[in-house]
């Protein structure tokens, strides 16, 4: 009997490497070949039944059970794969993909460092990165909660011991103090900073109060500036974007100084400031009407002004009289107002 008369089944690749070299065998070898064929046929039939069973009931199999069976399968020797399997084999590509995605998911991320606080010029950037970093580690309450921050744990506080609370406070203090420049540290020392302070809330509040004050800023100066601010001022270079950035800065400083300031006051000052520039008189008038109806929020104002600035840049007319479209749907041109739907106003 030649080897060509023995046609292996779909599992014949798992047979011994020497099986393909048999040309003429003894009765014993032929008996082995017959037995092997029967074994492969039985295994193929059992695997087919398992595939059907798996298609019907695969959703009942838990992930852990499936993973254990996969490991058992790949740990078998080649000659052991003829034993009937209770479930069909998973696609190797899927297993590799799962392992790859799992390893990528658990790779540590490189977090950006907290920037060094140089002074009033990067106070907002420093504050933003500090809060985000603390929030990532679940420690932001130590500086965002009202004074004195996170209270000392009591006997019934779940999941927090006094030692853990002390370590958390020390860690937050270390992150804050370690990000201060020498000049900022000197400014804090002249403002009453105690180097031995262990309450991070005290240090954080002092920084946000002392740094602007050292630059000659306080609530009164913020209000005076808002009362006269205008995009036409030389310091803005004719840029509406610079005007908006300064408005945002003044608003944030007021929120730091006054926990619950009147946001409507800042909106009124911002809209009136636009009217002090002849390029935006009509825009200011329209936004004022929206403000009277209660339809103007800070986010919408900034969005409208950002759109105006973008169109000025695109047309190459920044700092010059031009046209713009607000979220209200109106096309405004300096000194004259045309509504898209209503003609000349």
TrEMBL record:
Residues 15-39 have a biased composition (Low complexity). It comes from the Eukaryota. Residues 1-40 are annotated as: Disordered. This is Uncharacterized protein. It comes from Cytospora mali (Apple Valsa canker fungus).
